[in-house]
Amino acid sequence: MPPRPVLQAGVAARILIAGQAPGRKVAASGVPFDDASGDRLRAWMGIDKAAFYDPDFIAIVPMGLCYPGKGRSGDIAPRPECAATWRSRLLAQLPSIQLTLVIGTHAQAWHLKPGSGATLTATVRAWREHGASVMPLPHPSPRNNGWLQHNPWFEAEVLPQLKARVRGLRAE
């Protein structure tokens, strides 16, 4: 599959979704989170597709802008030169961001302070330490159903706060 950057960004966006990289289905459609992961992420945020795909509300800028290819146990990691080359320049064009959802370990390594968590679970469990402007999240992929079942505190503690923060920014 040839490179096809998939992102969404408007200068007025108040929420940044910092994910990993588009999957195969998203790369084919050209629409960010146009898959089961997107369905779950929208449910976590408490919003519909219209709000999610409003670039004046939500920017979606993954660590790797293009589908990185398939590995043995899922998609391979985002190409590191993509973030090194484009990430700071893209984020500088988004001055209105008030909440960043940091999804998955690659995005967390770039966006969060060093040592914020030894594992994905530790990082997400420490979500309060990042203040009101950043929320680390696991990837909403169906591949993480086991993680979600083993960590019921995520749904009980994190998701209500996520929905409240998104609701507040939507009302602005």
Task: Kindly list the characteristics that best describe this protein.
172 residues; alpha/beta; Uracil-DNA Glycosylase, subunit E; 4-stranded parallel beta sheet; two-stranded antiparallel ribbon; 41% helix; globular
Question: Would you write up a description of this structure?
Answer:
This protein has a single domain, classed as Uracil-DNA Glycosylase, subunit E. The chain contains eight helices and six strands. It has a four-stranded parallel β-sheet with strand order 2-1-5-6. Strands 3-4 form a two-stranded antiparallel ribbon. It is globular, with a radius of gyration of 15 Å. The model has no long low-confidence stretch (mean pLDDT 92).
Order of helices and strands: EHHHEEEHEHHEHH
Domain module count: 1
Q: What topology, given as strand order, has the largest sheet?
A: 2-1-5-6
- Helix percent reads 40-55%
CATH homology superfamily name: Uracil-DNA glycosylase-like domain
From the helix content, strand content and strand pairing, which structural class follows? alpha/beta
- The CATH class label is Alpha Beta
Major beta sheet summary: 4 strands, parallel
Number of helices: 8
- CATH topology heading: Uracil-DNA Glycosylase, subunit E
Q: Span from first to last CA?
A: 40 Å
Strand content: 5-15%
Task: Please state the second-level CATH architecture.
Answer: 3-Layer(aba) Sandwich
Average pLDDT confidence is 92
**Global geometry:** globular
CA-based gyration radius: 15 Å
Oligomeric state of shown chains = single chain
Low-confidence stretches: none
Instruction: State the total count of DSSP E strands.
Output: 6
